[in-house]
Write the structure tokens for this entry.
Amino acid sequence: MSQDTDTARVVDAVEEVESKTSAEFVVALEPSSGSYRDVDLLFAIVFNFVALVFVFFGPIVFDPDWVPLTQSLLFVMAWVFSAYTPYIRRLFCPSARMAQQVREAAQLHFLKRGVSQTQKRIGVLVLVSQLEQRVEVVADSGIWRAVKDESWEALLVDIQAEYDGEDLVGTAAVAVERLGGFLAEPLPVSKDDIDELSNMPALH
């Protein structure tokens, strides 16, 4: 699917919900919210240690002269493999750290996209981060004043449960629809409502 089509799907979802609620939505999609280079290094070290144990204690006899070069090559290969394999990073990286990385990335988008600049402070940032398999929602103070904390948190849990790694745009669209439906009652659209934020998503 082309980026233009992806953009159109998100824009349509945002425009649809903003016709029902005065809340303003901004969407961002990221392949990853952190670099995780230290995780790649850890994987390479562990892999190299296992390979070294096999060299010295395994059933196959290796020429000692080739061990340093072989280990160096394996180290580089393992590092590169981890860097391009999301599963390895998720396996070696604590889930709490990944959640924190996505939270920080969402807060950065929230500031850079001007979501905090709406007149009534009712902006909502939705970030879908692929590597971490997370949907992060950052809402401005006007949103928090209009909703009950327990109901809002329960909704965010449901949205996370609906994450679809095969369709990030669809995940973002569903999140916007769920949030918009939830906010339609406490923050209904008014006759003088204006669109203060861009509906174009940030796709990377």
